[in-house]
Design goal:
Elements (H helix, E strand, L loop, with lengths): L7 H13 L21 E6 L5 H9 L5 E7 L3 H11 L4 E3 L2 H6 L5 E4 L6 H10 L3 E4 L7 H14 L3 E3 L7 H11 L6 E9 L10 H7 L5 H4 L2 H4 L2 H11 L3 E9 L11 E8 L4 E7 L8 E6 L3 E5 L4 E5 L6 E4 L13 H14 L7 H20 L3 E2 H5 L1
Parallel strand pairs: 1-2, 1-4, 2-3, 4-5, 5-6, 7-10
Antiparallel strand pairs: 7-11, 8-9, 8-15, 9-10, 11-12, 12-13, 13-14
Bound molecules: nicotinamide-adenine-dinucleotide.
Nicotinamide-adenine-dinucleotide binds next to loops.
């Protein structure tokens, strides 16, 4: 396993790549997808049968014409078997991803394991000829992410990352509103993730170490990468510009049982002058996920996971837009069904998925820089180091 703490070289590479532009790696278009044109149900393997797997299994089962879950793998047999009950049919259980791949039961696999395992499983799956949908973040270090990028390039298989908010109607609408000038020129974005603890504590210390991978920097990549790569990705997409500077402060003020931080304030400056400030608090007793975008003529407000957007302008009644209800899970992770459809469609047509490997790679840069800024009390200047 490579270190999740970015080395100086990694941070330099964050900076160099980001300054060079956000689409770092050319994605093969029509070259992708050996199954182009095929409309038969795609055989899917689930690797990792923990909490998040349910949010994938249920919507996949609702697409019987498009896909069929043929295998489930978890290193803990009991979890694989519990997931098999949810999957139904004649799916086969495995306790090792290499055995699952060797069985050749799958055209595509979903990698839903702890972050530190993503690189090995994703690369093995691509080499075995499978298309891959890998949960976010696609790796814990940029070196590992680049290995995945290389494996995608040489395999010519479809690779998608679980950044499902790119498909959530609320963010799509907000992006359109900003682009249409609904609030004038966008200048400032404020987002917050105020929530309770994100992992259960197990009594047995060995079980705790095995299951609470989110407590450890190396296993998770850090709170801001594991949890907030979503926010940096999706709001960066709305802002539509290159980040040039990251400042951040944070630490552990409540939870003393872990390495990963429990709160942070992160500021990202973009080349076009927009500033994005994210407040993260993992010990809030009441959840709040509000986002506010401030433009020269007004503001847009919406909660993450909601279906409603409010536009506020001076001397006007607030305009409330109610969006088409979207499926999500109990955490408001909207867009998962659409993420699946995009992935399956990409396999069938040979086009690149919307959340392709470049998007997944780019989504890691700001959170890794923010973790570095907190650890070493320094400002990360993307441009300065690149020149
Ligand atoms: N896209 C989203 O909004 C979203 C939401 C939640 C979680 N996630 C991501 O999903 C992934 C899994 O999160 P989770 O909450 O389900 O974690 P979890 O700990 O509940 O489940 C992970 C499962 O993987 C199994 N596992 C560990 N190593 C394995 C290996 N080498 N091969 C097969 N199985 C293995 C574990 O036994 C466990 O059952 C993480 O990458 C997380 O960041 C994404």
């Amino acid at each position: 396993m490579s270190s999740a703490t970015p080395t100086r070289r990694e941070v330099l590479s964050v900076i160099g790549h980001t300054a060079a532009g956000l689409a770092f790696v050319p994605v093969a278009g029509s070259a992708l997808g050996a199954d182009a044109g095929s409309r038969s149900a795609i055989r899917v393997g689930i690797i990792g049968a923990g909490n998040r797997s349910g949010a994938h299994i249920a919507p996949l089962k609702a697409l019987p014409d498009r896909c069929r879950i043929t295998a489930v793998c978890d290193i803990e047999r009991a979890r694989a078997e519990a997931a098999l009950v949810k999957v139904g049919g004649d799916a086969k259980p495995f306790t090792s991803h290499t055995n699952l791949l060797a069985a050749k039961l799958c055209d595509a696999v979903f990698v839903i394991t702890p972050n530190y395992t993503h690189k090995e499983i994703a690369v093995d799956a691509l080499k075995a000829g499978c298309h891959v949908l890998c949960e976010k973040p696609m790796a814990t270090t940029l070196d590992d992410a680049r290995e995945i990028v290389d494996a995608v390039r040489s395999s010519k298989k479809v690779f998608s990352v679980g950044l499902q908010f790119r498909f959530a109607s609320v963010y799509r609408r907000v992006r359109d509103l900003v682009a249409s000038g609904a609030i004038g020129d966008l200048k400032y974005v404020w987002a917050e993730e105020f929530r309770g603890d994100w992992a259960r504590l197990f009594k047995d210390s060995q079980e705790n170490a095995r299951r609470n991978w989110r407590y450890y920097q190396k296993l998770s990549g850090g709170t801001l990468l594991e949890k907030n790569c979503h926010d940096f990705d999706i709001l960066g997409w709305v802002i539509g510009n290159k980040p040039v500077r990251v400042t951040a402060s944070g630490g552990n003020s409540v939870y003393r049982d872990r390495e990963t931080i429990d709160h942070a304030s992160v500021t990202v400056d973009y080349e076009n002058g927009v500033q994005f400030a994210l407040g993260v608090c993992m010990f809030a007793k009441v959840g709040r996920y509000q986002t506010t975008l401030v433009g020269t003529d007004g503001m847009i407000e919406f909660p993450r996971g909601g279906n409603q957007v409010t536009i506020r302008r001076p001397k006007q009644k607030d305009e409330v837009l109610r969006l088409v209800e979207q499926t999500g899970d109990s955490y408001g992770h909207h867009g998962t069904r659409e993420l699946h459809l995009d992935f399956l469609d990409a396999i069938g047509t040979g086009r690149a998925p919307l959340t392709n490997v470049n998007v997944g790679y780019d989504a890691m840069h700001v959170p890794i820089a923010a973790e570095e800024a907190i650890r070493n009390h320094r400002v990360i200047e993307f441009k300065q180091v690149a020149s």
